Structures are given as C-alpha cells and as structure tokens.
Amino acid sequence: MEPVFLFSQFFNGLVLGCIYVLLSLGLTVVFGTLGVVNFAHGALYMLGAYAAYTIANHLQLNFLACLILCPLIVAAIGMVLEKLLISKLYKLPHYYNLLLTFGIMFIIQDAIKIIFGPEGEPFNIPDLLQGAVNLGFMYYPKYRLFILVVTALLSGGLWLFIEKTRLGAIIRAGTDNAEMADALGTNISWTFTLIFGLGAGLSGLAGVLAAPIQNVQPAMGMDILVQTFVVVIIGGMGSIGGSILAGLVIGQILTFSIVFWPPGSTTLIYAFMALVLVTRPRGFFGRVSFFE
Amino acid sequence: MTLLQLEDVHAAYDESQVLSGVSLEIAKGELVTLLGRNGAGKTTTLRTIMGLLTPRSGRISFNGQAINGLAPNRIAKLGVGYVPEERGIFPSLTVSENLMFPSWGRGETGWSLERIFHFFPRLHERVSHKGSQLSGGEQQMLAIARILRAKMDLLLLDEPTEGLAPLLVETIGTILKEIKASGLTVLLVEQNTRFACQIAERHNILYGGRIVHTCSNEEFMRDTEIQHKYLGV
Asked: How many domains does chain B contain in total?
C-alpha cells in the first residue's frame, strides 16, 4: 500500500475527527456544567447545516457569512431552548432529561422535514476553497485542510477563553460548584444559558463545516449523535482536552477501519469504547464516571 | 442596630422538617454563634439565610429588607457572605481567581489584595495554585479572604475549625477577632464550644429546629446546666 494513500487516509481521519471534536466539545461542556445529557445536540448540528444551506442558496451570501452567522443563529436557538425548557431539568430526575431532549430532537428534525423536505439538499464547496493544495508529499483538498485549521484555532481559542478569561473562570466555577458560585453573587442561571448557547453554537459550526463534505439532510444529526456520545464518554464526561483527543482518535479508527476492514467499521469504535471503559471507567480525562 | 433578623422561620428538605420556627436577631458588628448538637439545624439555618433553601414560612430581613425567597446571588449582592463547612473553594480556579469571585457581583470594594496577602501570607505564596492543591487550612483562609475582598456586611461561617490542627484553630481565632475589629458582623456555627467561647460575645442555642436559649458569653460559661442539657458538653 502506497504511503501517500495512508497519509491521505490519516488526514481524512483527522478531518472527520475535527467534526467529532467540535460536536463533542459542546456536548461535554454542557454536560460538565449543567449536568444535562443533550440528545438534541445532533439536531442543532443539523440546524447549523440547514442554516448554511439557506444563507448560501436563498440569501446568496458567501461561505464566510455562513461560518459567522450560522453558529450565532444556532446559539440563539439554544439559549431560547435553555431558558424555556432545559432550565426546568436541573432539579428533576435524569429520565426527564432524556425525554425532553429526545423530544426536542424529533421536533426539530420533523420541522426541518416539513420545511425543506425529507430528501436533503446538496451543498457545494465554496469556490475559494475548491481544489487541492500540494503539501510536498501529497495533494490534499483545500476545503478539508480548512476544516483542520478552523478546528485547531477554535479549540485553542476555546481553551484560552475558558482558562484565561473572567467569563471562563465563572464557567469553571459553575462546573465545580454551581451552588457556591450562586452564593457568591454570580447569576448562575444566565451563566448556564450562556454555556448552553456556547455548546449549541459549536454544534452549529460543526454543521456548517460538515455541510460541503456530507450533503445537508434531516437525519444527519441523528446519525452522528451516537458517535459523538462515544467520543464524549471515551474522552471523559466534562473534559475539553479529553473530547479533543478522543474525537481525533475516533476519527482515525473510523477512517482506517473503513479502509482495512469495512464490515467492522461500525462496531470497532464501540469495542474501543468498551476497552477504554473497562481499563479507565472515567475515560481519558474525566472527573467523574458517567456510570457512577 | 439590627442587621439580620429571623422571625419564626420554618424550613424543610423534601419531607423532613429541619427548622421549626427559628427566631434570632444580630446587631451590626456583633460576633455571635449558633450552637447545637448534630442535626439541630445549624447548617440549615445558614443555608436558609443565604437563600440556598427557601423557607416555608417566616420572615428573614437583612438591613431592614426582606430577603426570604430571593436567589442566593441576589442575597450575596446585598452583602451576605457565606463560608460553608466544606469551604466551597472552586478546585479548578487558582487562588487569585477564587479571590476575585464574590467581588464580581459586588465591586472590588473590600480589602485590597495587598491587605489580604499581608493578612494571609500563606495565600500569597500559593496565589497561582489551583484550589484543589490547597490544604484544609489554606482553603479555610481563602474562603474567608474571598468574603473580605468583596466587603460583605455579614459573614455566615460554618464550622471553620472543623478538621484543622490546634495551631491552625488558634490562627483562625486570631483572624476572626481581627475581622470583628474591622467591623464585619459574623454569625458563627461551631461544634467546638471552647473555641466559640474564646471569640464570641453572644450565643444562640439551637435545639430541635428552634432557638431555645440566647445569652451572653459570660452567662453561657457560667451556666453548665444549659451546656449539658442542649449541647451534651
């Protein structure tokens, strides 16, 4: 097998991993802080893709506008959902969490089917990012490299935001001990709304980025949600670093299993998750085990 | 002048009644205790004042304003500082981030960082350490320093000496005396009666979810019967 082929598969794995990273970051931050497992996260990702489709095809705006507007739109939707519905979950048993977020997911998915139809829509790679770049040892599609760069910048930016800013410190404090943050004068309910909006915005961005390589269709969020949960669990619920590492690892496992052993591609990541959970129940960097 | 007043406050966790009619009054500048056996409702009283538990009935007023039913962050902004028994330090925040915390809600009007570090040199040495890396005594100092930084009017302090070595207990005592001298009002929950007698000027004794006795420190120290009956000392 040619080394160039392996390299390009490795890069494909990284790109796929990037989508998982963006999706699982939002999921894990929301879980770590709010204690909510958000099954509607995939639907928000799909909304991001449809928002991009609408902005690009109906409003005729360019891809940069999509990249900026769509995460904001999805974040706003997320914040409204949190204020109206999700915030009611914090004091309720966990099964309400499952019922509510599952319900929201189906409502969003069916609303999109009614508006846009069930088949899905094509989404072209923006002109500026078409074609390939010569990396010296191989040619690689420009758009895929773009995804790598955006994800790297965003992960770094998110880390800086959470670790180095005042709002980031409030978010960490809310994750550590929300009740104490409240007792020290922080309006924790708005902090929670903001965090949910941040998670939604990240999944919206993942949706925009994935649209040109995956076509936009109503079930796209449902399909990717399960793998995203695998990433979050392997990385450790609530851990940002864990989500980044696990997202990249799962991207590689999926890509290479499709190349070398296609029948196993759907089961290998679950086998890997089982292995991680047996040897390290908290995942890579998790503070608490999901199953504790 | 009365700073804090509780009138016939009832509170409960789920179905179990914990406070059944607590009434107490604290004047500005006082250092008073809430004494009682385990399960008497001491921590619950503090949590109820802080708004972490909503009273079922009764009235709590602070600086003449009713505060029962307000969210904890609103009560904190009015000037009530809380140091829980487990200290409530944020483990993933550094010492300096922890110190900034309540002042974000209230403006940095309290002690300057300089004054805090002069008073707590140990915290100065550990200023960039995470909360999770601090010892129990350091966490206690940080939890108190946080409140001083934000210039609260009232400090609710839950068992500050719990689990600390005797030398550190003495340090905490010195700190509390200085804090009182600087004009802060303190409501102290304490199991260690001896420690309480060294620093407090008045005691409220909680028994079965209500205040059964309130007296000056001198009276309390003379009255061994009360100590025996309600505290089992």
From this structure: 2
B111/B63 same-domain check: no
Count up the domains in chain A and report the number: 1
End residue of a domain, out of B110, B131, B152: B152
- CB B147, CB B83: distance < 8 Å: yes
Range of the domain at A241: 3-279
Contact B77, B104 (CB under 8 A): no
> Is A44 part of any domain?
yes
Angle at A25 between CA A98 and CA A226, to 5 degrees: 45
CATH of the domain at B233: 3.40.50.300
- Whether residues B102 and B3 share a domain: the answer is no
Is the distance from CB of B138 to CB of B123 less than 8 angstroms? yes
**Partners of residue A169 in chain B, C-beta under 8 Å:** 93, 97, 100-101
Shortest distance between the Cα of A79 and any Cα of chain B, in A, equals 21
**E strand or H helix that includes residue A192:** helix A188-214
Give me the domain span that covers residue B108: 87-152
Query: What is the model's pTM?
Result: 0.83
Shortest CA gap A160–chain B (Å): 14
A274 touches chain B (CB under 8 A): no
Coil, helix or strand at residue B17: strand
Per-residue pLDDT of A100-159, as tens digits, reads: 999 999 999 999 999 998 888 888 888 888 888 888 888 889 999 999 999 999 999 988
C-beta atoms surrounding A142 within 10 Å: 15
Tell me if A95 sits within 8 A of A37, measured CB to CB. Answer: no
ipTM: 0.89
Task: Kindly determine whether residue A180 and residue B91, on different chains, have CB atoms separated by under 8 Å.
Answer: no
Cβ contact (<8 Å) for B100 and A172?
Answer: no
Min Cα–Cα distance to chain A from B230, Å: 30
